[in-house]
Amino acid sequence: MIVVMKPGATAAEISAVIERAEQMGAKTHPIYGENRTVVALVGDLTGVTREVFDEMNGVAQTMRIQEPYKLASRSARPHNTVIELAGGVQIGGPEVVVMAGPCSVENRDQIIEIAKAVKAAGGKVLRGGAFKPRTSPYDFQGLGEKGLQYLADAREITGLPIITEVMTVEAVPMVAEYSDILQIGARNMQNYGLLQAVGKVSRPVMLKRGISGMIKELLMCAEYIVSGGNTQVMLCERGIRTYETATRNTFDLNAIPVLKETSHLPVIADPSHGTGLRELVPSMSRAAVAAGADALILEVHPDPDKAMSDGRQSLTLEEFAKLMVSLRRVAEAVDRSIADAPSAAVAANGAVKATELVAA
Ligand code: PEP
Ligand code: MN
């Protein structure tokens, strides 16, 4: 249930509603919107009577939320959640944000070279895995804390905020200390202990859809984090497993408008894991922006064939810079923007070649 406050309801009126709801046994989550505040009531509502609120000062109306994901649902919050990062980067606002970087942080020089190239091409967030969920225990598992330090060095040099995966509850404090966004990987979408742990930190979280996760399940997992107190959650479509073998995963473009419609949380698209094939990444990136994604997360590498993980789906730095030019045009076609991506006019008249956009 939500109690919708009138525009201009006072802090005392909002507190009175919260107090009354808690007396009746509900857990409360105030959601402060641009024009009005909504108090969401969750948990055991058997002792809660709606009529009580209708009489209270400052209350406009009460509404039942049908969806099981109460706090993540658009009914609870009609306005988009906008996540603010260092350097004025906003995810979920009018601008489409491009996050890019290697699948794995491999060494200090590698991540710094990539960070500079990502920034030069208009990328706003640097990605890179330090703790890697690998199918085989014999494959490269990531550099661990050293990798986090290299990411922090790259942030220091370029100013780009960083996103990196956290795989275990124990590592949450350490990864949160280094990073700007915590990534929960597809294999951990339903790791409820981990979701509860990131629900308690004050860092934005990007939650990836599980390999066989339904959209509804993704939203319920986001609900774990939001109901734990961390409202800074982003939902990521990264492809699902189907009978199709032509691609690594089946990138579910449908999920983007479905999530935008059902939730107020920002939606991120990962066409790198979604396709598994570098040559498909540009077209599916453009499709994701056209479908309404708030951000993309892309794997890039200076020499993909030598990458320690996911080289087959990683764009070269030149391919990435070239893609940014067309992404900007697609974003503009759907009334969004990609600040700092080179304009088509600049790229087309040869004034700037894609290779020149890659910083030395
Ligand atoms: C990754 O981002 O490199 C990754 C392992 O992603 P996913 O969890 O979607 O497989
Ligand atoms: Mn990867």
Number of helices: 12
Give the N-terminus to C-terminus distance in angstroms. 55 Å
The parts where pLDDT drops under 50 for at least 5 residues are: none
Strand order of the largest sheet: 7-8-9-10-11-12-13-14
Bound compounds, each kind once, are: phosphoenolpyruvate, manganese (II) ion
User: What is the tally of beta strands?
Assistant: 14
Tell me which CATH architecture of the largest domain applies here. Answer: Alpha-Beta Barrel
Structure description:
Helices cover 32% and strands 16% of the residues. By secondary structure, the chain is α/β, with parallel strands linked by helices. The strands form 3 sheets. The protein has an 8-stranded parallel barrel, surrounded by 7 helices. It has a 4-stranded antiparallel beta sheet with strand order 2-3-1-4. A two-stranded antiparallel sheet has the order 5-6. The chain folds into 2 domains: 2-63, Phospho-2-dehydro-3-deoxyheptonate aldolase, domain 1 (Alpha-Beta Plaits, 2-Layer Sandwich), CATH 3.30.70.1140; 83-359, TIM Barrel (Alpha-Beta Barrel), CATH 3.20.20.70. α10 (281-291) runs parallel beside α11 (317-333). The model has no long low-confidence stretch (mean pLDDT 94). It contains 12 helices and 14 strands. The structure holds phosphoenolpyruvate and manganese (II) ion (MN). Manganese (II) ion (MN) binds next to loops.
